């Protein structure tokens, strides 16, 4: 008789319902592929009184012990979100010998170390493919397919809300507030959009990706973060004219000189870069390794069924381990302790847009100020833009230290001809 | 003491040398990641007398028995290429209880069934990630990450040579013979380019991808193939004006009505399609599943180190199985026997380019001929193109059966006003 693997589900919201749907609609395939039946047994809900037609036939409970202490249950799938009680419930499940699958980037980015230690202690699996990039396979590729590589760089469009907004701003020339309203109307952005637009959601994913790519623990607090709220249609137009698109990127770099450098911020990306064509709510993660060269993984970064695709893939992976009586086949990837590069030491090119007095000689003054601060310029242009008595100057710098650009900006701020530093955005260099 | 896993390598050419290099340069990482040392022990070469500085320190042999009968060797890596003796040697290795890793698309596409049966019989792994898409992870994603999905479509740019040629034709307007010479000069195309330009190489990969995606055995002989030799700069220009790019695609579709339909041919691809931006020698595979929606995997489809990245990932995967004393964790994926859709039943839109007499009423005659054959048109345009007394007509059809378009072409051929059917190319429909 076929083995049956029983699942307890914590939370049946957007993703949880998707998981139930995928397990049902692809039941026959999944059974063949695993060599065992995967059966959802019990679902934890907050309010037992609420009508949930999609949960008919399953045991419902509002008591976590009914799942973690159920000896029949092999796998606990956490899809409630948030730090607590999600963290506590997952730890409990592992203590009771159950493998855990989650989509919870908050817990993984902040308490990953604790989770992996607990999994190791109790000989169970802890899987989190859906925590980054929704349905896109990226965690398994990093743990398996790319594992022959030393990875030097990982760059991702990992937040669909902000990518949708930037795409709309690019395509329609609309301004930030307009596209935010539109994104909210379409359900892509929350009423309080801060986690998305301020970059916090992307930062959690950056921490997870960097930990896996560079084999050293990177936590949310280690990621420097800047959101998209200051991006204007003018910046996007300058970018276009200079051959770039503006994207919010999660960036991780690892080099012998600087150590591990992880950040989230808007970037001018050369329009030939593979990530530049990733538009709307789509996500993609670009990886550079010392054997594979460049690779990219593209797909839907959110949504009920796409995210469930990743969660159920993890459930299948765990089930295969159970069928084959093996655990922890892939060891914890953070076997090193690398130096984290402080923000001031990071290097980048920058786009700097200034509002200046429209007088002869200003361009020269500005260029000299950059030079005095040790920042060499790749290009500098001055435009009129219908502003009485004023002009805009847009400078693109060569790669400089964060500290140097800060010094230059300090200098510029003090100059009488400079009326405003309108924006400062990092520029990703062309591929070679 | 750390476990040591010993590898025998068959063939140290482009990819084999890459494997040796990757194992050396990333030795420390790999050992950490596997929890065991991976040691290359013996290399099979054809000519022992040849100088091979990169093989210093390894045992060389020209006798396969020195590898397959060596009890110390756990994994045999086949990188000789071709059908025989590669097939024979891999079977022998498995008979002797060794897991096999290969990049050999020829053997997998033609003798996959035999290989998997042998692996199952002897409780060993048979891995072939590098056989499709070079370094790009696609086999593991199909076997693991996407396994919660019913996959309905897979489309790939899986031949770098032809993609390089089509990209050059698109960017520079050069003609076929010119870009072929250029590709040969750069080492991207062989002296005899047939396997690439006639689509055979892509067809092998199509068979492998379809077998994994649709869970039914598809072999090389089941794939209908058409190459790029008839593509002209004119076709590419018409494509551009109509909003398409021309790509050579490996296409697999699975539907309840038609069954499994696998082919390789040039395609007019809407320029918004994620595959449309894949240029030069890069490869990418696009997958559609009933949970994940669309996903794409992008990277370098060939080359010594990128391909070695995939081969070594497989070696690591096998080694993890050995360390954990498990085998065949992922079962053979071909557990179904689906109907293969005959070419005549396949459905597609088509681009048809005709040379016709330049007289009033011709456009009407042509349109009527299509209609009479049951082919409805989406658009039809007539151009002069500086051809005395002649004009060109370009028609784009709605989706029709292959048999219907053949009937229409037969009809057109017989018409006195039609001087030549210049090209017929499938058109991929826009994404919704
Ligand atoms: N949505 C996506 O596209 C997506 C993509 C990738 C990752 N994720 C991650 O997936 C997780 C779930 O997201 P979601 O979008 O599915 O959220 P959601 O729609 O808000 O669903 C969460 C569910 O968990 C339930 N829940 C919360 N706290 C609970 C508790 N203490 N006890 C019992 N049930 C509880 C909620 O019940 P009530 O209905 O009673 O509040 C709700 O049904 C999050 O970690 C999220 O970051 C989501
Ligand atoms: N090159 C790529 O980018 C790439 C990408 C994906 C997959 N692959 C696949 O990888 C495999 C190897 O390709 P490759 O490009 O590395 O080919 P290659 O450069 O021609 O190397 C093949 C090597 O195998 C040796 N060999 C052939 N037959 C042998 C025999 N009977 N006994 C001992 N040694 C033998 C050859 O030795 P001699 O030097 O004596 O002839 C040569 O060194 C092929 O299956 C290919 O399809 C290649």
Automatic annotation (TrEMBL), chains A, B:
Catalyses: L-homoserine + NADP(+) = L-aspartate 4-semialdehyde + NADPH + H(+)
Task: State any GO BP term from the record.
Answer: threonine biosynthetic process
Q: What is the uppermost EC class here?
A: oxidoreductase
- Which residues take part in binding L-homoserine? 190
For this protein, the record's Pfam families field holds: ACT, Homoserine_dh, NAD_binding_3
Any idea which residues are catalytic in this one? 205 (proton donor)
Q: Which InterPro entries match?
A: ACT-like_dom_sf, ACT_dom, Asp/hSer_DH_NAD-bd, HDH, HDH_cat, HDH_CS, NAD(P)-bd_dom_sf
Residues given in the record as NADP(+) binding sites: 10-17
Q: So, what pathway does this thing act in? A: Amino-acid biosynthesis; L-methionine biosynthesis via de novo pathway; L-homoserine from L-aspartate: step 3/3; Amino-acid biosynthesis; L-threonine biosynthesis; L-threonine from L-aspartate: step 3/5
Needed cofactors, names only, are: a metal cation
Any keyword Metal-binding?
yes
Q: What is its EC number?
A: 1.1.1.3
Segments forming domain ACT: 351-426
Q: Does the keyword Transit peptide apply?
A: no
**What GO molecular function terms would the record report?**
homoserine dehydrogenase activity; metal ion binding; NADP binding
Kindly state which keywords UniProt assigns to this record, in alphabetical order: Amino-acid biosynthesis, Metal-binding, Methionine biosynthesis, NAD, NADP, Oxidoreductase, Sodium, Threonine biosynthesis
Which PANTHER family does the protein's record reference? HOMOSERINE DEHYDROGENASE
This chain's protein is named: Homoserine dehydrogenase
